[in-house]
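A quick word before the example. In earlier lectures we treated sequence and structure as two separate objects. From today on, think of them as two lines of the same record. Here is DUF2225 domain-containing protein written that way.
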Amino acid sequence: MIYEKKVKCPVCNKEFMTTKVKTSKLKLVKRDEDFLNYYKGEEHPLKYEVFLCPFCGYAAMEKRFDKIKPSGKSIILRNVTPKWHKRDLKPERSFEDAVNIYKLALYCGEIIKKSKVELGNICLRIGWLYRIQGIDNEEKRFLRYGRDLFEESYYKEDLRENGYDEVTLSYLIGELSRRLGENEKALNWFNTVFTVCRNNKNPVIEEMARDQWNLVREGRAQKANTTDNE
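And the structure line, produced from the sequence above:
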């Protein structure tokens, strides 16, 4: 299920091997409403989406690993590398290993001031890793961090520049709010999806938002009926 890939670190310019999952071998089992995929088999590609340089300690999501400015490289070499001890990374990552590597990527992203949506994506994935392990309190903690970063990004950043659009991000903020039990906020963001979709058609996301909007309303109605009966 896994193979090794040679990568050159953009910070220290050294080459290292990192592990990837063979996507051709993956069989999707189900998908959660916040886009977490589940696959048949023991290896989950989520564990390997962060590249970590074993020489200097720089870590980032695979798709953003090379996208670091000269000023960012200096910050990593000044703030991460002196505290980092070169290590031989095991090809296979446990979920605990993956969480720690993601957290290092989050720290690197914060100190080099990556976009809020990028940091939110890392937090979301840490939450997913905890969900797969059934650690509910840590899952919710990182979903909240991710939701708040996405919300800040929605108002302050150019979403297209960061590979997102208003519809998808509005839906994701709404769904994470629903999972955190913040139903009014969830409804407001699902309503934003419907508003944005008038000009930017995305029928798949719009239908997902409608399903989750109905789920929140039904849950609220059931709670009200239970309270009345008491």
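Notice the following. The longest helix spans residues 203-229. We will return to this example when we discuss secondary structure assignment.
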